[in-house]
Structure formats: structure tokens, C-alpha cells
Amino acid sequence: MKKSMSNPEELQPRNRLDAGIIWAGNAISVLFLFTVLISFYEVLMRYVFNAPTIWVHETASFIGGTLFVLGGAYGLATDKHVRVVLIYDHVSERTKQYLNVFHHIMGLLFTVLLSFAAWTMTEGAWYAPWGEMRLETSGSAWDPAYPALLKALIFGTLCLMSVQFVLHLIQEIHGLVKKNK
């Protein structure tokens, strides 16, 4: 069981999936810098050269949305999700384990239900009502397929988080069973 914030064990991933998510999250974090650079480019082109772009705003929004969505899986992998520490920090280790089990069950239920809703949203963004594949676009002058791509990413990330919750729940239950022996 994890001890305190200063404990190096706290920074260790729980499983290979979490390790992969942490690695990927750290790797794609460079996209924040890319977003700043293209936003700077837009400001420069618009206000210095009077030649605004049609692609920067939507691209920066898409990258920001992508990083925000993937941040859920990263937060779960690094155990940096929202927790009511007013209660959690003042209970015994055993009670913390039971609270963790409850958290993982509720998180799993939440992500499974959201995955269903996200699938419905994604299906509508990828297929026309008559069944033909067509990606939903932004409707702007540039008209990229970012809305369809982001909806699919939301669905995929929620499915990934569901698997994470299952793996974390198994680990917590295994820890409780081990302590009861």
C-alpha cells in the first residue's frame, strides 16, 4: 500500500498499463509546447503581417482537448485524481483500502456508462444516418475532422480508464484479502 507523498514508491505505477500510460503521457506532453508555438505563430501572422491563419485556432483547440481527455487516464495512472483528503487522510490504512475499493467500483461504473454514451456520440460523428462512413467536421472555412477524431479519442480513453479501474480494483481486493489472512 502506498504510504505518503514523499515516499518514492508513490511515484511507481501499479501495473504495466499504468507504466505505459505514464510513459506516453510524458512523451506527448511536448504537445503543450507545440500549441504555444503555433499560437504564437498565429499572433505573429495576424498582428504583424496581417495574414491570419485558418488552421491554428482549431488545431490548438484539438490538441488541448486531446491532452485534457488523455489527462484522465494519466491522472488515474499516477494516482493524482481528485480525492476527499479531509476524510481520506484521517482514516486507518485498512479504511483507506476500503475507500479505494469503493472509489474503483464507482469509477468503473462511471467510465463504463460514459463509454456507452461516448460510443453513441462517436458513432454519430463517424457514420451518416444511412450508414455511410463520413467524419463529422468543424464546419469552419478549413473544416477539419477534429470533432469526429476527438469524440473517438474520448471513447477510447474511457474504455482505457475502465480497464485501469478493473486492474486497480483487482489489486486493492487482492491487498485486502492478503491482509485478512
Automatic annotation (TrEMBL):
Keyword annotations of the record: Cell inner membrane, Cell membrane, Membrane, Transmembrane, Transmembrane helix, Transport
Pfam families given in the database record: DctQ
GO terms, molecular function: transmembrane transporter activity
UniProt-annotated location(s): Cell inner membrane
Transmembrane residue ranges: 21-40, 60-77, 98-119, 148-170
Membrane topology of this protein: Multi-pass membrane protein
Keyword field contains Ribonucleoprotein: no
Record-linked InterPro entries: DctQ, TRAP_DctQ
GO cellular component, one term: plasma membrane
Taxonomy, superkingdom: Bacteria
Domain Tripartite ATP-independent periplasmic transporters DctQ component: 36-171
Assembly, per entry: The complex comprises the extracytoplasmic solute receptor protein and the two transmembrane proteins.
Homology family: Belongs to the TRAP transporter small permease family.
PANTHER family hit by this protein: 2,3-DIKETO-L-GULONATE TRAP TRANSPORTER SMALL PERMEASE PROTEIN YIAM
Described function: Part of the tripartite ATP-independent periplasmic (TRAP) transport system.
Protein's recorded name: TRAP transporter small permease protein
Source species taxonomy: Bacteria, Pseudomonadati, Pseudomonadota, Gammaproteobacteria, Alteromonadales
